[in-house]
Amino acid sequence: MTPPPPAPSISAGSTSVPLLEHTIGVALDRVVAAFPDREALVDLPSGRRWTYRELAAEVERVALGLLGLGLGPGDRVGIWAPNCPEWVFTQYATARIGAILVTVNPGYRTHEVEYVLRQAGIRTVVAVPDFKTSDYAAMLAEAGPHCPELRDVLLIGSPAWRELLTQGEEEAAERGGRDRLAAIGAGLSPYDPINIQYTSGTTGFPKGATLSHHNILNNGYFVGELCGYTEADRICVPVPFYHCFGMVMGNLAALSHGACVVIPAPAFEAVATLRAVAAERCTSLYGVPTMFIAELNDPGFAEHDLSSLRTGIMAGSPCPIEVMKQVVDRMGMRDVSICYGMTETSPVSTQTRAEDPLERRVSTVGRVGPHLEVKVADPATGDPVPRGTPGELRTRGYSVMLGYWDRPDRTAEAIDAEGWMHTGDLAVMDDEGYLNITGRLKDMVIRGGENVYPREIEEFLHTHPDVLDVQVIGVPDVKYGEELMAWVRLRPGAPELTAEALRAFCAGRIAHYKVPRYVHLVEEFPMTVTGKIRKVEMRERAVELLGLDGAAGVEHA
User: What is the full DSSP assignment across 32-101?
Assistant: First the structure.
């Protein structure tokens, strides 16, 4: 008897729990009404903490202050800062007044932030004055004159920021500010754009994925549902707020369940994260695999009481199986979840569940989430391939972005006429609907959870006076998952280019995670007979070269 053919690689999530059909502002009002005295936010660096009632008061001050600046629905407000309470206040305040929050990567430099300010038409920027080696105030002062729509720069802690808060207090006390906020809120739709997140483009500058209340509030809610969150949970969030991982899977998952967000440090520090979990009795911990590896290998790991941990999320890049097992065994995160997605899908499309066997949780990215569909498609036809066959992973449903800001051409390339978001990732779906990510149709590199697109770096490196041509690829790396390697053709007569010299050229001009670690000097690139660069062959040769001398950082053809 002939066995039946494999089922098609298409799967739909449960619809038993309805989608949320309200705005983020309404979600905040509801959680305050339900859990006014539950702790909502803890910032360990400053020692400050807020209940939901207190958080709502801070959000109201910022929202009314922004209204006082003339901002309202549809206006773009940038935020450029590491993780801090003011980031959260600004996230919810912009949502309350219908302004669109544009999240800016803290690693950006002048060249990149100027592009975002101009492309999104940002009117107001909230930023910290500086952080680590980044002088945000100076970079904004340099970029500002080239950004005609930029009116206000509010540096957190500065007189301008304090004046904003004072104005908000006065609005609330004397001028019927609460009535004004309520009137604006009543006119907002869950389907309004509320957030723009820039994702690096395969050709040139980043594109602004535009997301609605409905997109991100529901994604945070259902991610939290699959983690089993309640108002008793305390979520340690060392991942950045500027990315969906922090602001959606962290802040909005907590908001929609009455849980508490704990900020261990402005940026990831392994020791600070372990201390935060222990001191605040966190039940959930987030991170990309690199973060968990750093925590597990911290010399003082055994000194921290992590017994409160129950769950958490690992996402951003593929997780090594041994690391996942240690997270369960040594950190006690028995219900830890693996998530897969992309900024353009708010971000999570698939997720492992607590009831999944450990083998599934360490070897797959789970099954499709509620109210979503995924399929593994033939890239040429769009038809689902048979289960067990690789193809391009595509997603459809509430989570798919509204589009790329002011880029209808790019939007049409990414979302087809049937509403499927083309992820560009290669995947395989098994008989039970679990997915494995096996590669990428495009050449995106995931370095420590950061999506890096070689084309953007190549265009920048082409500005080096000695570079004739350049190709950037990802090569395996134990710590970051992947590292960047630049294959360079030098101009005739140019001096030899070292990795150190290339890094010096990049320093302060592009984000640190985009700077290639390795340089490989060549006369020609491997090409197909039709003249296309063979990056697959480049990667294979790079692995061999680095295996011979991986520590040198410079290789010669």
Answer: HHH-TTSEEEEETTTTEEEEHHHHHHHHHHHHHHHHHTT--TT-EEEEE-SS-HHHHHHHHHHHHHTPEE
* Cβ burial 82-109 (10 Å sphere, 16+ → b, else e): bbbbbbbbbbbbbbbbbbbbbbbbbbbb
pLDDT value for 175: 67
User: In the block, which residue shows the tokens 């789970």?
Assistant: 366
Tokens at 420, concatenated: 């499927």
pLDDT digits (tens, 9 = 90+) for 494-548: 888 888 898 899 999 999 999 999 999 998 888 754 455 788 889 889 999 888 4
How far apart (Å, rounded) are the C-alpha atoms in residues 291 and 283? Answer: 17
DSSP helix/strand/coil, 335 = coil
Q: What is the dihedral of CA 448, 306, 335, 232, to 10 degrees?
A: -110
Q: What's the token pair of residue 518? A: 């390795």
Q: Is 551 helix (H, G, I), strand (E, B) or coil?
A: coil
Distance CA 55, CA 90 (A): 11
Handedness of CA 153, 155, 156, 161 (dihedral sign): negative
Rounded Cα distance, 146 and 140, in Å: 10
CA-nearest of 383, 376, 484, 498 to 428 is: 376
Please list, in sequence order, all residues whose beta carbon lies within 8 angstroms of the beta carbon of residue 271, skipping any fewer than 6 positions away: 298, 300
Q: What is the DSSP letter of 146?
A: G
Residue 497 main-chain phi, psi, to 5 deg: -100, 120
User: In this predicted structure, what is the pLDDT of residue 551?
Assistant: 38
Instruction: Reply yes or no on whether the pLDDT at 29 is more than 80.
Output: yes
Single pTM value for the model: 0.84
Quote the pLDDT of residue 174: 74
Q: Which domains are assigned to the chain?
A: 20-37+47-212 (3.40.50.12780), 445-556 (3.30.300.30)
Query: Would you state the structure tokens that stand for residue 443, as one six-digit string?
Result: 């050449």
Q: Are strands 450-452 and 445-447 parallel, antiparallel or unpaired?
A: antiparallel
**In Å, what is the CA distance from 33 to each residue of 22, 53, 490?**
15, 8, 64
End-to-end Cα, the chain, rounded Å = 57
Q: What's 350's DSSP letter?
A: E
**Residue corresponding to tokens 């049409």:** 412
